[in-house]
Amino acid sequence: MDDDGLWVRPRGRAWGNEAQRAVLHAIAEDLAKRTHHKVVAIEALRPDGYLEFVAIAGDDAARDKMLGQASPLELDHIHQLGVEMAGWRHIPSERLDEQTRAWLDEFGHRPDVPASGLPNGWDPDDQMVRLLHNEDGELRGLLYLDEPLSGLRPTTESVAAVNAEAGVLFDAVISIVERELYGEQVRMVAQARRAIESVRPGLGVQELLSELSTAMVEAMDVATVDVIAVGSEVAGIEEDQPLVTELMRAQWERRGHVVVERQRTWSMQEESIATPPSLTRLLDTHDLGSGLLVPIGAGEEYLGTLSMGRAPDAPRWNASEINAATTVASDLARLLLEARLVERERTLHAELRAVSDYRRDMVLTLAHELRNPVSVLFSHLELLGLETHSEESTHSLEALDRAARRIEDMVADLMTLASVSDPDGAAATGEVDLSALVQETSDFLAPTASRAGVEMTTVVADGLVVTGDPAGLQRMVSNLLANGVKYTPEGGRVAMGVEQGSVDGVAGVLITCTDTGIGIAADEVDKVFAPFFRSSSPEARKRPGTGLGLAIIERVVTGHDGTVEVESVLGEGTTFTVWLPVGGTRAPR
């Protein structure tokens, strides 16, 4: 940087490759023939914002001096001194001032040839320049014509002839430079995206920001990279942070960016401002020469800032880097939104877990509190049973006994429901012979079915083994059969079948339990697995129950990574279908 605070950029070859240069040299030679000039020179806009001479035809001395050399992007002398001629600028030698001559001596070449001496003759200090812009009006290079073979300065007619003859070559030069600029941007974006992809998934916001910053430093070829979420504190700029936040919020609204240099802070949309002292101190703290700030957002929401720092001796930020950083910021917006969603899901999960724990603890407390009075009831009923009572008293005692047993069943169901609903429950797991378990449970409940006048049959394939909790699986099978018997009138049937069955290519066991009972109303089928649900049907209400049996079945099945489904027709019967994976994909509860 010179005493005036202006950046002095290094000169030297930096644009393209030899193949691209060879093509541009061929274009320069073709232009010389088509335009009837001895010398043609092409400058290309480099990714670092410099103009570099990439092709010079017709002058060996100029080629030796300037080819591969670069100069600052300074076009004031062309705009101010040049005469517009159909897209070209003719700068007559008599218009050149001392400052412009000094500039041309530094970055240009004056041919060692005499003036033509003709009326309206070409002077060795004359310049004929065309600014090459793409379709969006962005500068991509400069084209120079020198030493016209006619020895004359350009006229309206001669310029029109040049454009007609060589116009297609102007577009060819622009296309080649565009590809190089775009290729540089694509390379930078690809490197940054590879770094982003290396970050672990499922991180919260702060974890994500830390890993992104580390991964992107090397990929973006800069000294520092920080991804700063809105609302985060940045050490060292507390005093100016509200100002910087509002500045970046405004940049997001106009899809802009901010370059922070030691003296001035600027963007493409606004006039530059004096760099806030805190930002200058931040550059000093991290030994940086400049910084690039790109807003991160989604829709109308400003999410944060991508901040990159560059060493003091590094070149100035150029358009390719800024465009690449803007593209990367769009990717970061998606990651930030995903990280925020992860944190919200974690918070919601913690809240739901707290509610679930509270409910489980409440159920366990209630069950324990009921156990003592139930035990007292049974003790007194046993004592009263030792005495002789009237028929009326006997009926009352029998009613008390039935009520006490219902409470006892509810306590047992509550304890079981709390157990199978606990994700941290330490239930014993191992290989379970499901064939034997179903057969034993069926044999145990057969007398109950017989007393109810219900025919119960089981068809069980041999050797069906699953991984799981034996007690939970036994309770699930028992509840299926007992539920079928309870809601099937005398003379009905309950049938259970157990066989191999795969779901989505996963091997498992299929259990079906079908009864010819009272059935379930269509509007209640999707409610039957809810704890304490009892059907509104008078026929169902006649059967005693706690409304917890099917809830226990559902918890046991899902705890083993299985599925349970129900199909029913009111007045005809119900079928429950349970599928359990053979190995289980997570520890069953």
UniProtKB/TrEMBL annotation:
InterPro entries xref list: BphY/WalK/GraS-like, GAF-like_dom_sf, HATPase_C_sf, HATPase_dom, His_kinase_dom, HisK_dim/P_dom, HisK_dim/P_sf, Sig_transdc_His_kin-like_C
TM region positions: none
Domain Histidine kinase: 365-584
Keywords: ATP-binding, Kinase, Nucleotide-binding, Phosphoprotein, Transferase, Two-component regulatory system
Alphabetical list of PROSITE patterns matching this protein: HIS_KIN
Localization in the cell: Cell membrane
Protein name as annotated: Sensor-like histidine kinase SenX3
Annotated source species: Nocardioides pini
